[in-house]
Amino acid sequence: MTDTRVAVVVEDDADIGLLLREVLEMAGFTVHRASTGKEGVRLVQAVTPDLVTLDLGLPDVDGITVCRAIRAITDAYVIMITASTDEIDRLLGLEIGADDFVNKPFSPREIQARVAALFRRPRRIPGQPSADRTASLQVDEHRVVSHGDLEVDLDGRIVTLAGQELPLTRIEFDLLATMLGGPRRVWTRETLLRTVWGAQWIGDDHLVEVHVGNLRRKLGDDARTARWIRTVRGVGYRLAPAA
Ligand code: CA
Protein backbone atom coordinates (compact mmCIF):
# COMPACT_ATOMS: atom_id res chain seq x y z
CA MET A 1 0.00 0.00 0.00
CA THR A 2 1.22 3.48 -0.77
CA ASP A 3 0.72 6.51 1.46
CA THR A 4 0.05 9.00 -1.29
CA ARG A 5 -3.24 8.72 -3.02
CA VAL A 6 -3.36 9.46 -6.71
CA ALA A 7 -6.12 11.32 -8.50
CA VAL A 8 -6.79 11.87 -12.18
CA VAL A 9 -8.81 14.94 -13.16
CA VAL A 10 -10.43 14.67 -16.60
CA GLU A 11 -11.60 18.18 -17.39
CA ASP A 12 -11.28 20.36 -20.47
CA ASP A 13 -12.00 23.65 -18.69
CA ALA A 14 -8.67 24.97 -17.44
CA ASP A 15 -10.11 26.95 -14.50
CA ILE A 16 -12.21 24.08 -13.19
CA GLY A 17 -9.29 21.72 -13.73
CA LEU A 18 -7.08 23.99 -11.66
CA LEU A 19 -9.68 24.28 -8.91
CA LEU A 20 -10.04 20.49 -8.73
CA ARG A 21 -6.27 20.09 -8.69
CA GLU A 22 -5.94 22.52 -5.77
CA VAL A 23 -8.75 20.93 -3.76
CA LEU A 24 -7.42 17.41 -4.27
CA GLU A 25 -3.83 18.37 -3.54
CA MET A 26 -5.01 19.95 -0.30
CA ALA A 27 -6.69 16.63 0.49
CA GLY A 28 -3.33 14.87 0.03
CA PHE A 29 -3.63 13.56 -3.52
CA THR A 30 -1.00 13.59 -6.22
CA VAL A 31 -3.00 14.97 -9.12
CA HIS A 32 -2.68 14.31 -12.86
CA ARG A 33 -4.90 16.11 -15.32
CA ALA A 34 -6.18 15.19 -18.76
CA SER A 35 -8.20 17.57 -20.90
CA THR A 36 -9.80 15.06 -23.27
CA GLY A 37 -11.55 11.74 -22.76
CA LYS A 38 -9.00 9.73 -24.69
CA GLU A 39 -6.14 11.28 -22.78
CA GLY A 40 -8.06 10.60 -19.56
CA VAL A 41 -8.40 6.88 -20.24
CA ARG A 42 -4.70 6.66 -21.12
CA LEU A 43 -3.74 8.51 -17.96
CA VAL A 44 -5.91 6.27 -15.78
CA GLN A 45 -4.26 3.26 -17.33
CA ALA A 46 -0.81 4.74 -16.74
CA VAL A 47 -1.06 5.98 -13.14
CA THR A 48 -3.67 3.60 -11.58
CA PRO A 49 -5.38 6.35 -9.56
CA ASP A 50 -7.47 5.96 -6.40
CA LEU A 51 -9.86 8.65 -7.55
CA VAL A 52 -11.00 10.03 -10.89
CA THR A 53 -13.04 13.19 -11.40
CA LEU A 54 -14.66 13.10 -14.78
CA ASP A 55 -16.33 15.96 -16.61
CA LEU A 56 -19.43 14.82 -18.50
CA GLY A 57 -18.93 17.34 -21.32
CA LEU A 58 -15.57 16.64 -22.92
CA PRO A 59 -14.44 17.83 -26.37
CA ASP A 60 -13.79 14.40 -27.91
CA VAL A 61 -15.68 11.51 -26.28
CA ASP A 62 -18.69 12.01 -24.00
CA GLY A 63 -18.20 11.44 -20.28
CA ILE A 64 -20.53 8.42 -20.15
CA THR A 65 -18.38 6.51 -22.62
CA VAL A 66 -15.23 7.60 -20.81
CA CYS A 67 -16.69 6.52 -17.48
CA ARG A 68 -17.49 3.04 -18.78
CA ALA A 69 -14.02 2.75 -20.29
CA ILE A 70 -12.42 3.80 -17.01
CA ARG A 71 -14.62 1.43 -15.02
CA ALA A 72 -13.45 -1.45 -17.18
CA ILE A 73 -9.81 -0.88 -16.25
CA THR A 74 -9.88 0.37 -12.65
CA ASP A 75 -11.69 0.17 -9.32
CA ALA A 76 -10.86 3.81 -8.59
CA TYR A 77 -13.65 5.94 -7.20
CA VAL A 78 -15.17 7.98 -10.00
CA ILE A 79 -16.84 11.32 -9.36
CA MET A 80 -18.78 12.56 -12.36
CA ILE A 81 -18.92 16.32 -12.78
CA THR A 82 -22.11 17.45 -14.52
CA ALA A 83 -23.61 20.72 -15.66
CA SER A 84 -27.13 20.16 -14.28
CA THR A 85 -29.10 18.09 -11.77
CA ASP A 86 -31.29 16.79 -14.62
CA GLU A 87 -28.20 15.15 -16.01
CA ILE A 88 -27.53 13.45 -12.69
CA ASP A 89 -31.01 11.88 -12.71
CA ARG A 90 -30.45 10.64 -16.23
CA LEU A 91 -27.01 9.24 -15.39
CA LEU A 92 -28.23 7.46 -12.26
CA GLY A 93 -30.57 5.44 -14.44
CA LEU A 94 -27.82 4.44 -16.85
CA GLU A 95 -25.56 2.59 -14.41
CA ILE A 96 -22.40 4.00 -15.85
CA GLY A 97 -20.33 2.98 -12.85
CA ALA A 98 -19.72 6.40 -11.30
CA ASP A 99 -19.60 6.47 -7.50
CA ASP A 100 -20.83 9.99 -7.07
CA PHE A 101 -22.06 13.02 -9.00
CA VAL A 102 -21.26 16.66 -8.47
CA ASN A 103 -23.03 19.51 -10.17
CA LYS A 104 -21.34 22.62 -11.56
CA PRO A 105 -20.75 25.13 -10.12
CA PHE A 106 -19.41 23.43 -7.01
CA SER A 107 -17.50 24.75 -4.03
CA PRO A 108 -14.11 23.37 -2.96
CA ARG A 109 -15.73 22.33 0.30
CA GLU A 110 -18.35 20.28 -1.51
CA ILE A 111 -15.71 18.35 -3.43
CA GLN A 112 -13.73 17.78 -0.23
CA ALA A 113 -16.79 16.43 1.55
CA ARG A 114 -17.71 14.08 -1.31
CA VAL A 115 -14.18 12.72 -1.58
CA ALA A 116 -13.95 12.22 2.19
CA ALA A 117 -17.28 10.35 2.18
CA LEU A 118 -16.15 8.05 -0.63
CA PHE A 119 -12.91 7.17 1.10
CA ARG A 120 -14.66 6.44 4.39
CA ARG A 121 -16.32 3.51 2.70
CA PRO A 122 -14.33 0.28 2.84
CA ARG A 123 -12.17 -0.33 -0.20
CA ARG A 124 -10.87 -3.57 -1.55
CA ILE A 125 -7.31 -3.01 -2.67
CA PRO A 126 -6.33 0.63 -3.03
CA GLY A 127 -5.14 1.48 -6.51
CA GLN A 128 -5.36 -2.07 -7.78
CA PRO A 129 -7.64 -3.21 -10.58
CA SER A 130 -9.98 -6.09 -9.90
CA ALA A 131 -7.67 -8.52 -11.68
CA ASP A 132 -5.70 -8.69 -8.43
CA ARG A 133 -8.68 -10.06 -6.54
CA THR A 134 -7.68 -13.68 -6.99
CA ALA A 135 -4.17 -13.11 -5.73
CA SER A 136 -5.42 -11.46 -2.55
CA LEU A 137 -7.90 -14.26 -1.92
CA GLN A 138 -5.11 -16.72 -1.43
CA VAL A 139 -3.27 -14.76 1.22
CA ASP A 140 -5.89 -12.78 3.13
CA GLU A 141 -8.48 -13.85 5.60
CA HIS A 142 -11.93 -13.03 4.36
CA ARG A 143 -15.10 -12.47 6.31
CA VAL A 144 -17.82 -14.14 4.35
CA VAL A 145 -21.52 -13.68 5.11
CA SER A 146 -24.13 -15.82 3.47
CA HIS A 147 -27.86 -15.42 3.12
CA GLY A 148 -29.57 -18.26 1.28
CA ASP A 149 -27.46 -18.94 -1.80
CA LEU A 150 -26.09 -15.41 -1.70
CA GLU A 151 -22.51 -15.21 -0.49
CA VAL A 152 -20.81 -11.93 0.32
CA ASP A 153 -17.07 -11.72 0.86
CA LEU A 154 -16.85 -8.53 2.91
CA ASP A 155 -13.09 -8.10 2.59
CA GLY A 156 -12.75 -9.19 -1.01
CA ARG A 157 -15.94 -7.27 -1.85
CA ILE A 158 -17.15 -10.12 -3.99
CA VAL A 159 -20.78 -11.19 -4.16
CA THR A 160 -21.82 -14.51 -5.58
CA LEU A 161 -25.35 -15.77 -6.13
CA ALA A 162 -25.57 -19.55 -6.47
CA GLY A 163 -21.85 -19.55 -7.27
CA GLN A 164 -22.12 -16.85 -9.94
CA GLU A 165 -20.29 -13.58 -9.30
CA LEU A 166 -22.48 -10.48 -9.48
CA PRO A 167 -20.96 -7.31 -10.95
CA LEU A 168 -22.05 -4.84 -8.26
CA THR A 169 -20.99 -1.21 -8.08
CA ARG A 170 -19.40 -0.02 -4.86
CA ILE A 171 -22.61 1.55 -3.66
CA GLU A 172 -24.64 -1.56 -4.42
CA PHE A 173 -22.10 -3.67 -2.57
CA ASP A 174 -22.11 -1.34 0.43
CA LEU A 175 -25.92 -1.33 0.52
CA LEU A 176 -26.04 -5.12 0.47
CA ALA A 177 -23.23 -5.52 3.03
CA THR A 178 -24.92 -2.99 5.32
CA MET A 179 -28.25 -4.79 5.16
CA LEU A 180 -26.58 -8.13 5.79
CA GLY A 181 -25.21 -6.60 9.00
CA GLY A 182 -28.79 -6.77 10.32
CA PRO A 183 -30.62 -9.29 8.19
CA ARG A 184 -33.84 -9.14 10.23
CA ARG A 185 -34.15 -5.42 10.82
CA VAL A 186 -35.84 -2.79 8.70
CA TRP A 187 -33.35 -0.36 7.20
CA THR A 188 -34.72 3.15 6.79
CA ARG A 189 -33.59 5.13 3.78
CA GLU A 190 -32.04 7.63 6.16
CA THR A 191 -29.91 4.98 7.91
CA LEU A 192 -28.77 3.56 4.59
CA LEU A 193 -27.88 7.05 3.36
CA ARG A 194 -25.89 7.82 6.48
CA THR A 195 -24.09 4.47 6.43
CA VAL A 196 -23.35 4.15 2.73
CA TRP A 197 -23.09 7.76 1.52
CA GLY A 198 -22.36 9.78 4.68
CA ALA A 199 -24.26 12.21 6.91
CA GLN A 200 -24.25 15.10 4.46
CA TRP A 201 -26.60 13.20 2.17
CA ILE A 202 -29.51 13.06 4.61
CA GLY A 203 -32.72 14.01 2.81
CA ASP A 204 -31.67 12.60 -0.54
CA ASP A 205 -33.83 9.45 -0.37
CA HIS A 206 -34.04 9.27 -4.14
CA LEU A 207 -30.42 8.10 -4.27
CA VAL A 208 -31.20 5.13 -2.04
CA GLU A 209 -34.22 4.17 -4.11
CA VAL A 210 -32.31 4.26 -7.39
CA HIS A 211 -29.37 2.23 -6.14
CA VAL A 212 -31.52 -0.30 -4.25
CA GLY A 213 -33.49 -0.66 -7.50
CA ASN A 214 -30.31 -1.40 -9.44
CA LEU A 215 -29.13 -3.84 -6.76
CA ARG A 216 -32.46 -5.65 -6.89
CA ARG A 217 -32.24 -5.99 -10.64
CA LYS A 218 -28.82 -7.56 -10.38
CA LEU A 219 -30.06 -9.95 -7.70
CA GLY A 220 -32.89 -10.96 -10.00
CA ASP A 221 -35.68 -9.40 -7.93
CA ASP A 222 -38.63 -7.88 -9.70
CA ALA A 223 -41.68 -6.00 -8.51
CA ARG A 224 -43.70 -9.18 -7.97
CA THR A 225 -41.16 -11.47 -6.39
CA ALA A 226 -38.99 -9.73 -3.85
CA ARG A 227 -36.82 -12.71 -3.21
CA TRP A 228 -33.99 -10.70 -1.66
CA ILE A 229 -34.98 -7.17 -0.74
CA ARG A 230 -38.45 -6.24 0.43
CA THR A 231 -39.87 -2.75 0.59
CA VAL A 232 -41.40 -1.77 3.91
CA ARG A 233 -43.86 0.89 2.78
CA GLY A 234 -43.11 4.36 4.05
CA VAL A 235 -40.09 3.13 6.02
CA GLY A 236 -37.38 1.48 3.98
CA TYR A 237 -36.16 -1.99 3.19
CA ARG A 238 -35.47 -5.35 4.77
CA LEU A 239 -33.87 -8.51 3.53
CA ALA A 240 -36.29 -11.29 2.73
CA PRO A 241 -35.73 -14.30 5.00
CA ALA A 242 -33.11 -16.65 3.60
CA ALA A 243 -34.67 -19.62 1.82
CA1 CA B 1 -16.40 20.47 -20.10
Q: How many domains would you count in the coordinates?
A: 2
Order of helices and strands: EHEHEHEHEHHEEEEHEHHEE
Rough outline: globular
CATH structural class of the largest domain: Alpha Beta
The fraction of residues in strands falls at 15-25%
Distance between the termini: 40 Å
Q: What percent of residues adopt helix (DSSP H or I)?
A: 40-55%
Bound ions, cofactors and other small molecules, one mention each: calcium ion
Regions with pLDDT < 50 over 5+ consecutive residues?
124-140
Using the coordinates shown, work out and report the CATH topology of the largest domain: Rossmann fold
Task: Write a structural description.
This protein is an alpha/beta fold and 243 residues long. It has 2 domains: 5-118, Rossmann fold; 133-239, Arc Repressor Mutant, subunit A (Orthogonal Bundle), CATH 1.10.10. Helix content is 41%, strand content 21%. It has helices spanning 14-26, 37-47, 63-73, 85-94, 108-120, 133-139, 170-180, 189-197, 205-219, and strands spanning 5-10, 29-34, 51-55, 77-82, 100-103, 144-147, 150-153, 158-161, 164-166, 187-188, 229-232, 236-239. The chain has a 5-stranded parallel beta sheet with strand order 2-1-3-4-5, sandwiched between helices. Strands 6-7-8-9 form a 4-stranded antiparallel beta sheet, with helices on one face. The structure holds calcium ion (CA).
